[in-house]
Agmatinase (Pilimelia terevasa), 367 residues
Amino acid sequence: MINGRPTPVGPPDATHSPRYVNATTFARLPRLDQVPRADIAVVGVPFDSGVTYRPGARFGPNHVRQSSMLLRPYHHMLDLAPLTEFQIADAGDIPVNPFDMAETIESITQGARDLLATGARLMTIGGDHSIAFPLLRAVAEKHGPVAVVHFDAHLDTWDIDFGQCHSHGTPFRRAAEAGYLDRDHCLHIGIRGPQFDKADLTADADLGFEIVYGEWIDDLGIDGVVERMRARLGDRPVYVSVDIDVLDPAFAPGTGTPECGGLSSRELLAILRGMAGLNVVSADLVEVAPAYDHAEITGMAGARVSYELISVMAAHLAGIAPTPPAEPAMRVATPPPAVTAQGRPRNTAQGRPRIPTQGPPGDLAPA
């Protein structure tokens, strides 16, 4: 017993049981039916009938599970062992109907409600991004309107796709309209590439979203992004939604709508860790399409993103806001010269344009 609660059941010891033996759950964790309760439930939603380009994300949950075998219990950056200090369990998949969006929305909503009613937080693995709408419905029923931080190359606040109001491009518009979002505390991170129209950005801002564009990441730096993210989210209950295409295709080729110029996996993981201490009540990871993956690159990225989100939720459950270990002194270097060895300007005000002081509607450009 730990603090009057049953000792958590973690994954098997990988030094005694090979990772590829009986590897059918996320991080080789127990199934939900094998433990009395779970602090965090990992659940799959294998649905991709809301995609508008390349299909295949219905196979994402099991691909991410298969790619999660190398995850280990202790997180050295957060000084926490989420997989053994808390009860994390794999709840399997929520049933879906690939031919009926309306029925699937109801099924996902009810499945999420049932899991949330046990006291668990959810780490959901999709599936396409349309699943975020019913998940937000269930979370908002429990917590009230939630702050949302949405990592994606795309806004996903469009109105209609092919005459349909529900698709992977519309979930946050529908959720905002339904009152599930706290419009004063919502944020996109990683938006990049061409838009349909400038009006898309205005409409997005009207729904309550501010934006940290992918094109700004180099200039802001990870600390700058985290600072803006935490300021926007405040002390509200937070829902985190990660579309794997927020990563550059070099780091996540296995997705349905890839966009060049994205975050690196290291950048994304560091920004996610920056939420430690916030009240992240549930999260999703979507749009992993294994048919386009290579050597589990995208699957491993999805598994590690899920692990980081589980760790952030566990940190809040532990009542701590960890401070990452200081970098070794040997890595503190003298600022580089203004030009590279090849004579090209570095990232300075003279080298290339800085972040605009005023950007499109909804931006978080520094004043």
